[in-house]
Write a structure and sequence with these properties.
By secondary structure, this protein is an alpha+beta fold. About 25% of the residues lie in helices and about 30% in strands.
């Protein structure tokens, strides 16, 4: 059984959540979920066993053993990202992995630390002001503000833990926009990212409600589209962009 740790041990995999540390044992299975070695919450939308960490032939692996939920996984610098769908697994090769996943209206974040990573990371490149480009995707100032309004609860939180994704109405109110304007811009942002190959932003009616907002927040934070230092932009005066009405 895994126990809470105060530090990362040599040659180990440790998981940090809400300021507590857990150790994954080489000869066991470490689970994350509602009723698991790391029980993140009693959220009924969360699988009892959702993610699983194990060592196979000397390699540590992260697997999604749930049936419905997916997780966004990124390295410490936000440069490498994967969408871990049900049944998928990936090797833990970086010194730090951030896990972000959503169950119902709540998003969770925890961090995996490896003391013997296969790959090392370079320092991330700082984002520029104004128009932001991620890969081949360019966001206008107002589109970035939309993402920031949705991600605000998660960015404002200290450390890892849980946060609730705002509804479109609440995020629109935060920006001083009409809900119709917010939803139109949300469509545009999701379409841009979908065309760039980002998974989880298109689908049925359910995806176009809570799930796509949560997936957008997961991707934006993992990719450093928005960070905590951007939060003051929400209270700054908003300029009207070309072609944008009130």
């Amino acid at each position: 059984m895994s126990t809470v740790e105060t530090a990362v041990g040599e040659g180990s995999i440790s998981i940090e959540y809400c300021g507590e540390w857990y150790r994954a044992e080489p000869d066991g299975l470490f689970s994350i979920g509602r009723q698991a070695d790391l029980s993140v919450d009693d959220n009924p939308f969360l699988h009892r066993r959702f993610l699983q960490i194990s060592q196979v032939d000397g390699m540590w692996w992260l697997a999604n053993v749930g049936s419905r939920l997916a997780a966004t996984v990124t390295d410490g610098g936000g440069r490498v990202q994967a969408w871990l769908a049900p049944g998928a697994r990936l090797p833990i090769v970086f010194q730090m992995l951030h896990l972000i996943f959503t169950a119902g209206p709540t998003t969770y974040e925890c961090t995996i630390h490896s003391t013997e990573p296969a790959f090392t990371e370079n320092d991330p490149v700082a984002t520029s002001n104004g128009i932001t480009t991620v890969g081949t995707v360019t966001f206008t100032v107002s589109q970035r503000l939309l993402v920031l309004a949705l991600a605000e609860p998660m960015l404002a939180r200290e450390g890892t833990g849980r946060s609730d994704i705002p509804t479109s109405a609440l995020a629109a109110k935060r920006l001083g926009w009409a809900t119709t304007k917010f939803n139109r811009k949300l469509d545009n942002v999701c379409d841009k990212l979908d065309r760039a190959g980002v998974q989880g932003l298109r689908g049925g009616v359910t995806t176009y409600a809570t799930n796509r907002r949560a997936r957008l927040v997961e991707y934006a934070i993992a990719s450093r589209i928005v960070t905590r230092i951007d939060l003051p932009l929400l209270d700054a005066p908003q300029a009207v962009e070309p072609g944008e009405g009130s």
